[in-house]
Amino acid sequence: MPPTRTPAAPAATIPVNRTLQWVVWSALGLIIAGILVSFVRQQWKAQEQRSFAKLDHFNQVPPFTLTERSGQPFDSASLAGKVWLADFFFTACPGPCLVMNGKMELLQHALIRDHADVRLVSFSIAPEADTPPVLRKYADRFHASTDKWAFLTGDQAKIYGLARTAFMLPTVDNQNNPERKPDDGDFIHSEKISLVDRHGVVRGYYNSTDPEIVQQVLTAVGDLLREEPDAPANTTKAKATLKTGT
What we know:
alpha/beta, 2 domains, seven-stranded mixed beta sheet, 6 helices, 15% strand, elongated
């Protein structure tokens, strides 16, 4: 009787190193994710360039020199190469000016933190009453940065001229207004905030009573900064346009 053969044991299965497997798959996942992120960023940058809006061109703001709330002369040449926002107000204005400069305050906080090339300029249309000490107190209400947001006073005819002929604001001189009330004062007024480019050209107007104004202005400022992103390279060219005024 032939000997009984014991069946051969099955070959041992080599266990898979689960840690190594996890490391390999994690590395592959990171590589794939990196490729996707890079692709998405490239697409986003391309879309940002495609969505760049070309703003209108209005008047050139002429050179001017006025007095800042600090009491020091303010030369418009200091704005060369800067994107800036402008409004016209007076400190005794009980309602619209407070709303308008409240919006300027919001824009200040949103812009100057990330954009060194942006400035804000507020022109008083009641310069006899709005002396530098009065403007300083008023500016403090809006936490106005001393080096980013200027409050200007000075010659009334010069300020009125800027408002009407340079910024083309729909203003009314109450002195010649037949509907003027005795306590209305003799001031011109507009609720619009103007956007000015690096070369002193007005590029847009925004109604301060519009609830969407902050987003509108931020978008427009972004468009101007992308239009001419290299401020140092443009400052010399801008100063050629904005020569010192008197």
